[in-house]
Amino acid sequence: MNSEIRQLEPKALWNKFADLNAVPRPSKKEERVIAFMKNFGENLGLETIVDKVGNVIIKKPARAGMGDRTTVVMQSHLDMVHQKNNHTVFDFDNQGIEMYVDGDWVRAKGTTLGADNGLGVATIMAILESTEIPHPAIEALFTIDEETGMTGAMGLKGGLLSGGILLNLDTEEDDEIGVGCAGGIDVTATRSYEEEETPEYKIGYKIEVKGLQGGHSGMQIHEGLGNANKILNRLLFDGFENFGLRISEIDGGSLRNAIPRESNAIVAIDAIHEDAFLLDINILSNAIKKEIKTMEPDLVIEVSKIKTPKLIMDLGVQEGFTRAMYAALNGVYRMSADIPELVETSNNIARVIVKDGEIKVGCLTRSSVESSKMDLANTLRSTFELTGCEVELSGDYPGWTPNMDSKILKVMTKLYEELNGEKPHVAACHAGLECGILGQNYPEMDMISFGPNIKGAHSPDERAQISSVQKYWKFVLEILKNIPKGI
Description:
Aminoacyl-histidine dipeptidase, Alpha-Beta Plaits, 25 strands, hydrolase, 30% helix
């Protein structure tokens, strides 16, 4: 199946992407891809380093005649988000990604594609392997665990790199040159509760919210996409208010940086109210579908009768929990006052688990302004603490402050305009790039981020545009050819 991918141009890049996608590489389980990348560098006879946390650094000398140019760090992350459609049978831990060509796009069969950030990794691999591409001295930096905490970038020590320019290949719009990004923090609310035996007069139902698009919880947070956890809570809140619905279990969402596509609950209702409950939830479901049909035309809400659960959540805890879920902000908190159309601060209610007497709600809060990030984090903390939850703030990482006087920015802006006949979009993004973290130990490094068009990242709808990859590849080659001296 991946043979057709290997025939795409530029072949050097797409072949390396196919090689990489044959290696399972979930976040926090990168042992195989680290070994793969280490072998790749050593087989090329290049200096290859694996640091203490698992980042791989491969150093390649400059081509003849370019030894006086500034050394360039080319950086991408090795891990990928693992998401699949409900009906897709796939073992991410042991299978390679199954890709196919769909017109001008490369997609995966029912799973995430790994173009984020596999296309960046493949780009660097192709340049390291080439004996023809002009380039200055290159330090290839392949970080781990970008998607679930950026621990690779955080663990990278100063002194391992000497480059004056860093090219981060993790932007997903080919007309954009990134000069800044948001920082983030995990907000996790937990508490225990007593379970009660379900009264005999109650019957069991399962409520499923599915068919949502999902997507990147930073880059797409402003698009009006449905959050399955918030939609499910509306249904649970309404059922409790009107029909005494009681919660037994909830399982919603998956990864902290993915907008939840699915969320399910097992509940119990009074048998005497069954007909009224079904009528009411159908009316509410249709109203929700109508609200978001433009962005979420495939939303499905299923309510099915099941065996009555033996245990249900304590009534007082349930009441507080559903109200906290209603009150907790999901989506955009504040738009930037300085950069047009940039989301400054947001939150994604990513994961909700209620089972066996334990509640856990996981959120990822992002902001390009540190004080605003902590303001929203404390807002969420207060919301959940009012219901008796313990709230942990963890995984804090900094944003990347734009430098509009960047020398490499000026070079790249000029080259982009010459190649494409139009100016690039120079912007900061509402996503977590590693530049801000790397800049803590390498504060003098001039940093830029760019990449090809990738849509639907962090979801099974992820796809990479073939024509855009060709455009991006030409841009990469011109940048390397025109790296200046003395940065």
